[in-house]
Structure formats: C-alpha cells, structure tokens
Amino acid sequence: MDRNVIFPRSLRYLLAVAEYGSFTRAAETLYVSQPTLSQQIKHLEEALGVQLLDRSGRTVRLTDAGEIYLHHARRALGELDAGTRAINDVQDLSRGSLRLGWTPITDYLACTLLAKFNSLYPGIILSTFEMPQDDIETAVMEDRIDVGIVFSGPLLSAEGVSSELDMNLLFKEALCLAVGSAHPRSDQKEPMSVQEFGQESLVLLNNDFALRRHIDRYCLEHGIAPHITMETDSLSVIIEMIRVGPLATVLPTTIIRTQSGLHSIPLSPAMPHKAITVISSKHGYKSPACLAFTALASEWSVHRLVDAYSRNEALSPGNGGYYQGDSVSSG
Q: 198: closest CA among 224, 234, 170?
C-alpha cells in the first residue's frame, strides 16, 4: 500500500487509542469500524517488529516501546500538519490560516488591528487564543500558534527565549489607575500618590499575567503592599467590577478611554510604560499570512501614533499619550 496513505492514518489511529484507552471509543471518535482500526495498528506493529499497545487489561495502554514511538509520532504529525498549512497558504493570500495568541489586555488594544487584517484578507481564517504571556511565548516556539501580541518584559529577554523569537515593537502604553463612577475618587484629576494607591481596594489579573507582575514590581520598588480584594483571569470581569462598584484597577489608558463609565487617575510617580510587541518564531516556517500580519501590524502602529498626535494627546505624559519613538520596528 502507498506509505503516504497508511502512515498518517495508522499514527492517528494509535494516537486515538492512546488517548481514550479503548479501541471502541477510538473507533467511534474516528468514525471507522473497530476491526479496521485494530488491523491498521496491527500492521504498524508488524512493520516495526514491536508491540506498541498492551491489550491485556480492561484499559488499553501504551507499552514502553509505544510511549517512545508515540513521542516521535506526535512530532512527525506536527511536521505533516505544518506541511499541509504551507501548501494551503498560497502566496496571494486568497486562502490560508493564522493562529494568534494574545493576553486579556492586548486583545482589547489590538482588536482594530485584527479587523483591518480581516478586511484586507477575508480568505484567511484567523484563530485567536487568549492566554498568559509566558504561555504565548512557549506556544510560538512550539509552533502551536504563528504569532503573539504581548507586553514586552523580562520574559522576552530571558536566556534561551529572545534567541528563538522575532520581536516587533508596536507602541508603548501608559498605565493609570482606573475607577468607575461609583468610586469616591472618580472626579480626581491630580495624580494619586503611591501611599494613596496602597490604600485602594484593587481587582487585578492574577499573577500569571504580565500586567499583574508589572504592577507587583511597581509596588515592591516603592515599598507598598497592594490591597488586593479580587483576582481573576478575565479583563471583562475587572471592567464590570470597577464600573458598578468602588473597586479600582490598573489599566492601559487606551482601554480606560474606550470603556464607558471608567475614569483614569495618574499615579505619582508614574507607573512605567509597557510596550506592546508582536512576536513570532525566528527559525520556524512563517506563512504568507504570518508575514502579512507582521507587516500590517507595523503599519497599523504608525497610523495609531499619528492619530494620537492628531488628537493632541501625544505631548502630555499625564493623559497617557504616546511619545515620539514609541513605535519602532525591530525585525
């Protein structure tokens, strides 16, 4: 039989049996008969001259040889999937796919970028995944996503990480305290001191996320212990909590401006700006869609900076504006 036909099929059958621990459940999931599935795996074992599955118990499990083989099989199937994507991603971008990872913060900041990409390349299927920054970096390096949008930070310069990633700095974002109309300081215009900030009841992202670690470093550097009332992994929950109650949080000023019912209060000293960065694999395959997205992101960041200046928001650090030089491409 044609090896190019039986090889992927038998591997997928083996993966399914290993996952479900049952020939019956694996066959049902794959929509094939159990005898067909069993025969394909038996042929694979005969070709290798080794038993891959232990069928003696109530649950089918991998043998030691099966564990080793399946590890390499998964890598092989990953390469086959990458090859399939490469074939489908035609150069004119009339079809293809792009897998994007972003954080709860960067998805709010970059939705207009995705809308622009979709309008230019409607044939590209865009799949987005929300996750912590360190998970995004790992997913890019393991080819589980094509590109990520993250907060720049220490993780990106960690040993063994920066050498694996292309980083494209888009813009820098100021961070302020965000409160709702029910907060007693909602009308405050003057900066809030660090000591006052330490007395605020805060709702924050949990410490899996880069923004939270950034806030924690700020508090540590200024010798205060933040009063954290609630932690979550959802930015939508945070926004709703401060919109309807007396809690506060720390957010990029762009998000505060675009959410009705939220008010910004600058901190003194100011919390350091955060850079929004597009990352992709430095050594892996980059699809035409990935290259087009990275190029569009750089163009979009320039227009974003120009728009900020046109609204006269770029010259005052107190209102969270952008600064000349914040938008940089570093391929």
A: 224
